[in-house]
Specification:
Length: 255
């Protein structure tokens, strides 16, 4: 319980410090570029591969039912809504948690165990500005971009499987996919990924930098970081979906 309170307090302190523009003067930009490479290009392939197969499975499950109801003109819009609002941002965030978040936690925890953080203090370097802030910024910048690539991959693969198996022309698929609220939903999907990125990066770094003990505690901190990040993603996804999408539907119903 004491460890959780310590992490919660540190979480809020770093969150408040991120609002201060002065921190950008103390950032090591070489370190920031290295972290951008870890989060972005190194995670792109697995993100697109996951989106490709998830969209294939979802298309197989949905398109058949819509064809049975003679509603093939709705296939593109239904799949686009599913990907933009829920599947793409959540799946991309989960991939980043498993690949990047766990790496951040284990890396920082190892630095704590091997007393490298103490060496930074002796050199007069603030570990928050040198280690945590570049990682937080890199995830915030790269997760929305990964989400865009995921969306693009999902729509392309869905149109492909619809054409191959169900003879739905890609022109009609994409004409249906561009529904009225597409751009507004896309903007809200980006907001979702920004919120996810903030919590994933902060939890991963804080769980790593508050590790105490030896190599066993590094593994425990990494596992705890991943589990906590996933729970936060699911909770935040429900809250953001209700606030951004459910209220919007209510507004249109009463207008």
């Amino acid at each position: 319980m004491h460890e959780f309170i310590q992490r919660f307090i540190l979480f809020n302190k770093i969150l408040i410090s991120l609002i201060n523009p002065i921190i950008f003067k103390d950032i090591n930009y070489k370190n920031l570029l290295d972290q951008l490479r870890v989060v972005g290009p190194n995670s792109l392939f697995i993100t697109m591969l996951t989106s490709f197969f998830i969209s294939l499975v979802l298309s197989l499950q949905i398109v058949k039912e819509f064809l049975y109801l003679n509603a093939s003109d709705l296939v593109g819009s239904i799949l686009a809504i599913s990907f933009i609002r829920e599947l793409s941002p959540v799946l991309t965030a989960i991939i980043v948690v498993g690949k990047v978040g766990s790496f951040f936690t284990s890396e920082l925890a190892t630095m704590i165990v091997t007393e490298q953080i103490d060496a930074l203090f002796m050199l007069g370097i603030n570990p928050v500005y040198y280690l945590i802030v570049p990682r937080v910024i890199s995830v915030i910048l790269m997760l929305p971009l990964l989400n865009i690539f995921s969306l693009f991959t999902s729509l392309i693969s869905s149109s492909f499987i619809c054409f191959i198996l169900y003879n739905i022309d890609p022109y009609f698929f994409f004409r249906s996919a561009f529904y009225n609220l597409l751009y507004l939903d896309f903007f809200k999907s980006i907001i979702k990924t920004l919120v996810f990125a903030l919590f994933i990066s902060l939890i991963s770094c804080i769980w790593g930098i508050t590790t105490k003990g030896g190599s066993k505690d590094v593994g425990l901190s990494t596992t705890s970081s991943v589990v906590t990040s996933l729970i936060c993603i699911f909770i935040l996804n429900f809250i953001l979906s209700y606030v951004m999408f459910d209220n919007l539907l209510s507004l249109f119903q009463f207008s």
